[in-house]
Structures are given as C-alpha cells and as structure tokens.
Structures
1.
Amino acid sequence: MESDCVTEESTYSFTELPLYNLIGERPPLSSMGDPRFGEGKMEEKRRRKGGIRTMPFIFANEVSEKLAVVGFSANMISYLTQQMHLPLAKAATTLTNFGGTASLTPLLGAFVSDAYLGRFWTITASSIIYQIGMISLTASAVLPHFRPPSCVGNQPCQEASTWQLSVLYASLALTAVGAGGIRPCVVAFGADQFDGSDPKQKTRTWKFFNWYYFCMGVAILVAVTVVVYVQDNVGWGWGLGIPTVAMGVSVVSFVVGYPMYRNLEPVGSPFTRLAQVVVGAVKKRGVGMVGVGELYENDELDEAISLVGKLIHTDQFT
C-alpha cells in the first residue's frame, strides 16, 4: 500500500522519494536544487549573497590599512628622530623590527583564519586590533606626556623615556598584529564573494582583482604624498589622525556589510590536509597512473574548501 508525504509545496509518495531522504542521510549536492530538501533553499540564499555590491566594504578596509601602514612607515624614521629624539641607528633598528614583524604576522593570520575563525571574523578582529594601535599611536603624537620635550637652543635633545618608548612599541606591535590578519585575508575574502560555477560571476572575479590592485595602488600613492605632506607640514597629530579615522570608518562599514557576504567556514588546519596528502601519496606510491575519469572525487569533502563544490583537476604537473 502506497503512503503519501505532504509538504507545503506539493505531495510526494514514498516511492518517489530517494532512499537517503527516508533513512535521514545527507543528500548529495546535485539534489540541492530540489524543493524537497532544505539545502535547496539554503543554496539559493547563498547564491544571492556576495557579488559586486560587497566590494566597497572590502576595498574600504584595504585602502584604510594601506593609508595607515604606508603613510606612517614611509615617514617613520622622521617621527622617531625628530619627535622621539632617538639616535639614527636606534631609529633604523626600530623601523627594521617593525617591518619584519609586520611581514611575519600574516603567516599567523592566515593560519588562524583557515583553521579557526574564518576570513570575516579574522579581518574584523584584526581591524579592531589595528584600530587600537592607531589610536594609541595618534595619542602619543598628540599628547605631550607621551613624547619628550622639544629641543631648546643648542642643548642636546632629551631622548624619549623608557615608558614613552614602551607606548610607542606597543602601538607598533598592535598595528603589526592587526595587519597580519588583514593582509592575507582581504583579497581571498573578496574572491569568495563570486561564484566560480556561474560564468557571469567568474568574469567578475577578474574585475575584482583589477579594482583591488588599483585601489591599493591609489592608497599607497596618497599615503606617500598627501599623508606624508600633512605629517611634515601640518603636524603628526593630523598626519596620524586622518588614517586612524579612515580605519575606524572602514571597520564599521565592513561589519555593516556582513549580511551581504558569502562566508566559508573554517575547515581546520591546512597542515593537517597537507599531512594527509603526503601520507596518502606515500601509501599509494606503487599504484599506477589512472585516467582523469577514474580520479576519486568527493563533493562533500571538497565543498568546505571550494565555493564551486569541487577541486578541478589539472594536468599541469603530470
């Protein structure tokens, strides 16, 4: 005797329903457009997110970060020698340490993003840390208690005290840590907003990269010209305050755009997947080469690390 299953949209008999729907297993991705599955609606909702409309929020974050870090680092030696009265050798060492730290922290930021937080929350948390560092740095340039007194006549200039340098170094460390979470995630997060399986959005991905590097170049140009000019001719308070305000606005705008973003969930440590590949390759080192059609593919496993739902095979390394 055939029973009927009634849904909101239509009626299906048990004989029409696939076996995995009866026993509670997760349906394959190919059935995600079927109205009998909640995943179909989730997939449709996910496809409505992302796209070009999310780009202003992402670009604002990257432009503000470049304004701040390039605008300060390009003229940092002048600030350390003229405002903090550090010897040239000590100022150069500080600049080198800051640049080296800011170059290493993206490795940590990328790992945290892929393994634990995801790109959106990594960018958000890092931007807030960066903002705190910029506020502290601006305060040290504006408030006289955070820097040594001005030089008087021909008398030797008083070098910044230990606690004044501690505030400076803590501010630089916060900006370096913040930059480490922003730099490796922003461009990848922007690319996540486009569906690679949609031919129209696939072409827009290249437009995104073009506009991304254009905006980054313009931000660097403004930083080394306008921001540096303000620092030298108007004052360090304005020269650091402008990027600080811009960064604050970008953080707010980036978070406001959250409902429109397409987010990939963190899928665990990439080192674990790398180790699995190495172990699998060693175990199967004696297996002969197979054709492309015989390669093992698992849509559900690949979905977490590919918005397209499948990692495309390449003959480049064969």
Note: The radius of gyration is 26 Å.
2.
Amino acid sequence: MAARGVFAAPIKCLFPRVSFTQTRSWGSDGPIADRAEVRLSRLDGEDNGYTTPEYTLQPQLQFLCSLVWFGIMEVLMCRERARNSLGHVFVGQMRELVSSLHHDAAVRVVIFKSLIPDVFCAGADLKERAQMSNPEAELFVHGLRTLMNDIAALPMPTIAAVDGFALGGGLELALACDLRTAAHSAQMGLIETTRGLLPGAGGSQRLPRTVGFAIAKELIFTGRRVGGERAAELGLVNRSVPQNQTGDAAHKEALSLAREILPQAPIAVRMAKVAMNRGAEVDISSGMAIEGMCYARLIPTRDRQEGMAAFIEKRPPRYIGE
C-alpha cells in the first residue's frame, strides 16, 4: 500500500534561549512509531554555539535538542534493517517529506543524513525489486527518478552527508543534492552495470555533469566504487574528512558547511541556485538572460537594502529573507 502522510510534531523547550528541535515522521500502514523510515529534524535556535545532536533508533518519536544556527532542516534516513535501501515505504515517505520542504520559507539549508552506522543509502531494495513484474519495476524506477528530480528542485541548498556506503540509488540521491561531504572511509559508486542495469534515477545524467563525461563513463562502465578521498579528487564530493570515532565526520562537516551558508541572504542564495541550475542546461546567452531575471528579483528585496546598509555602516548584515 502506498505510504500515507502522518504528521506528528512533538515540541520541547529545555531552557531559556535554546529552541527545540522538531521532528516529523511519515508512516505507512500501522503505527507510525513502528514504520517511520525517514524523518525530518528542524534545528532551530540562535547562534549560541554548537553541539552535535544525539540520535537514537528507539521505535518512538524523539526530541533532538541542539544549540545550533536557525534554519537547518535535516532529513534523517533510518531504515535500519535494510540499510536505507530504496523500498516502497522509504520512497513514499521521502516523497511526502521532500514535498513538505518545497514551501517552507523558514528552511535555509537541508542536510540529508543517515542514522544507520556506516551507511548513507545502500541503493535499490533488491529483495523487494525481485518480487516486481517488469512493468511494476519500470513504474517504480520512474517514481525514483521523479523523487530525485524533486530533491534537486528544492529551492534551498541541499547537502548530502555521506558517512558510509552510497551505492547505486544511494549515490543518485547524493548527486541530486547541491553539495556533498564524505568521510574518507565512505564508499560511493554507480554499480548498476554489475547488476545488468544502468543508473535509472538520474545517475547517468548527473554524474557526467558533476565529474565530467570521461570520468563518469569510466565509473559507470566499470561499476567501480571510490572512497571519500578519491571522490573529492574527482569533484564528486565537495569536502572529504577523516572518519571519527562516532562515525559522523561527514555530518559534522556538512553542518559546518551549512553554517557558512546560513549568514548569507536567503533569497539571494535561492536565486543563485536557480540561476546556476537553469543556466547549466542552456547556452550561455540564455543563461545570461536567466541570471538577469534572477538578479532583477533581488533588487526590490529588503535583504538587498540591508546588505548595502551593513556595508556602509561597517557591521554584519541581518538578513530576514524578505
């Protein structure tokens, strides 16, 4: 049965000047606590410093409290038994979750993170896929492709924190994000040709646009896996860091990157994303026209006026997203 949206938003304020972290979960048949495979965690609060949230996999909705910058939303993948593989329920929950983010103006950066140690996303759920007829499999992969397009179309910057395996559809999910961080120990690859397939959820298109056609062809033709350091050398990820004892080095690096984005004017960041993404698909003259239209959208904003005033007054700007 297709996943249906179930919304829950527990809220807890622990002490003054520290806001809550809000968690939303989407469930399919049965109690939501037993079925949530993808969760949202909103990291709210003033810039009072930073501590890493503590996540648990107990079958209940959690309060995840942190001292963090306002405006980060984390997508928490937690299909433990199947290593975050892309099954019907997981994909249905992710689709609803991503849809909810499209119109959330308070979110400035989205981080995709796994709660499963040593795994980002293992790719296709092959056991589930084996039960599908050929038409069912084709329809399901079409839905996967649509999901990845929806992630790529999110208006705010997105970051994939790859602390473990990101194979097949798992790497395609990471490629749908704007930016990627990885631990040195992570393993990434579009391995579909080793299974008699080709990348079907955007990988054959996004990988060449990320690392260049020659490298992408080599990686896809061979089904080769690469580690985090090599991925950074190829331009597959933006940053690669040594893994730490808690196994979340890429996530911490993603939060660090998000903190660099947060102080910038949010409408300007969104318009820059539109200009680059749409401009990359057309000739440079058309791209310049797209840039001009995006620039024009920013001229009447209060944030632009604030940026100019802050420069003149020699103070940090205070952007409000208007």
Note: DSSP finds twelve helices and eleven strands in the chain.
3.
Amino acid sequence: MAGVRLSAAWLTQPPLPPPYQLSPAAAAASWRRHQDSLCLPRGSFSKIACSTGSSGDSKVTKVLFCGPYFPASTNYTKEYLQSYPFIEVDEVCHEQVPDVIQNNHICIVHNRRIDSDIIAKANQMKIIMQYGVGLEGVDVNAATEHKIKVARIPGSTSGNALSCAELALYLTLAVLRKQKLMDTAVNQMDLGSPIGETIYGKTVLILGFGAIGVEIAKRLKPFGAKILATKRNWSPGSMTCDIDRLVDNKGSPENMYELAAKADIVIICLPQTNETVGIVDNKFISVMKKGSCLVNIGRGRLLDYKAVFAHLELGHLGGLGTDVAWTEPFDPNDPILKFSNVIITPHVAGVTEYSYRTMTKVLVFYMACNNFQ
C-alpha cells in the first residue's frame, strides 16, 4: 500500500441529523447519542486532549488549515468546536505553513502542497487531511515514513459528490444556453437572443464514474440524456447503484476515444494522478464531435491548456465550462476568457452549506475515532 489512509467504514452507520440544523451544543449531544453506533468509546475527545500537545500545552489538540482559500471550512470548524476548548483551530497563509507545521497535530491541506520537506518538520503531526477529496498535493509516502496518517472525506457520504454534480449540471446548462451571451443581451436590452441548446437528446460522456459521476448521471437522466461512462472496474461490488438503469454504454480508459467520438458533452470528474494529468489532450479533443462541449469539475491539469485553447479558437470545441483551473487562483487576465463560450467558476463545486457542515462533522469524528495515540 502506498501510504497510510484512514478507514471511513464507520460512515456507513446510521446518519446523523442534517448538520445545518445543529448548534454546537446540539451537535455535542448528537455526538454523544451516536457514540455507540460510531464505535466511539466515551471520553474520546478527552483522550485526544490528553494524548497530544507539546510540553506546556499538553491539553490542546491543534488543527492547522493551510491557506486563506475555502474560508467556510475554517469558519464552520471553529463554530462547531467552540464548545471544545481543548481543540484549537488556526489558519495561516501558504508561505507560513513550513514555519508552524511542527506545532500542530492535524493539518488540513486545501490546495497547499505538503511535500517531504514539510512533513519532515511535522514532528507532532498525527493526520494530514483533505477537506473533501483529492490528495494529489500530499506526499503520502513521506507521511507513511513518518507514521502520519493521510485521509480524505468520502464524497459519497459528505454531500460533496452531490454538490459537485449539481455544479456540473450548472456548467453544462451555462455552456449550452450561452450564459455570457445572455448577459450581453441583458446589458444591451435585447430580447429572445441568444438561441441555446438543450440537454434533452444529447449524449453525455462522464469521464470517471466514481461517486461524483454517479450523482451526475442520476441528475442527467431525467433531462433525457444518453449516458456513456468510463470506469476502471465495473464489477457489481464496486457500485452502489443500478448501473444498467443509469448508464447506456459502459467503457474503460482504454476505449475513451471511441466514446468521446459519440458524445455531445464530455464531463470530466477524474482524480488527478500521474496517469490522468493532460488526459484531455489534442488527440482526445480531435476525436470529439465538432461543436461538442467540455465540462471539468475534477482538476485543472486534467485538461491540456494549449489543446483546449487551440480547439476553442478553431471552433471545433463548442464550449468549455470549468470549476477548476490550470493554476489556482485563476488568472482573470487569462486569454482563454476572451471566448464567449467559456464559463469559469472559482473552485466551488463542493462548496455548499450542506457539504461543508457535513464535512466539518466528519473531521471531528475522525479526531474522535483515532484518538491520536
């Protein structure tokens, strides 16, 4: 195994009440009621407090959020933990992380690269965690060598997957209905322009049929779309839904070009790995239908920027909707924004009230389940 990862099996236990309905006090009471079903021994939080911390500060567990982006994650965590004075939450800019990492026990990475040099300084660190999915920024092997656990929050149980799926539909509709041109028409006091397209009758390829891909398919089906999808493993045990009802044509990475040639819309929701960086390249886009669209809610580097730009300029690519960029934060002066059929959102696919409050609770339960001993 490449690295130490936390099990999320306990997430299959009976669900907690919707997180946005819980005050911190109610959340604490809810946590106590669910300790047995979550396999948490009573006193877990006090054990955390006693088992971490340096000399002179032995009763405080320190949680570090890396960077100022995705501020709701820090704010909600602080709100949720205000009844627990033995857990301290801090946030620093990216540049400060190497200077303070040694003082913390839990690191929430966001979009900060946590490499072997930083990990070597983290002599009190117990868990490096992503507030959501995607661990491409963490050197898992280095963390394993230092006996630091690495974790992510499964999207299928936190609301992240369904939140991302909804934004994928938003971007799809924004491209098909020509959002930028509609804005122009409003500003020019025009009516009945532009003419858009429907999802109805379209063939959609979902590149990467994981938790997010499943949620996208569930939402596309009622629109009358034909669904194609790629996945490495289609065995029944790997899926939690009726695949035959959702997917009209199942494929693998080996025949993605064949499927791309049939699609009117390609939605990318793959993880970023060495194998997937630049997977949507000149070859891939060239086999797509003229006028077809790309929607990306995975990672920016899954798309070859030069290839995407060139095919937009040639008119072969009918539109791009993306929530992630090649470099983040996105450059507002990037020339790709000159195209009226390009819609960009600021990496907010998983950023909803529901998903973030749920992920905050999951973060706290990870802490309680592991005790950091």
Note: The chain has a mean pLDDT of 84.
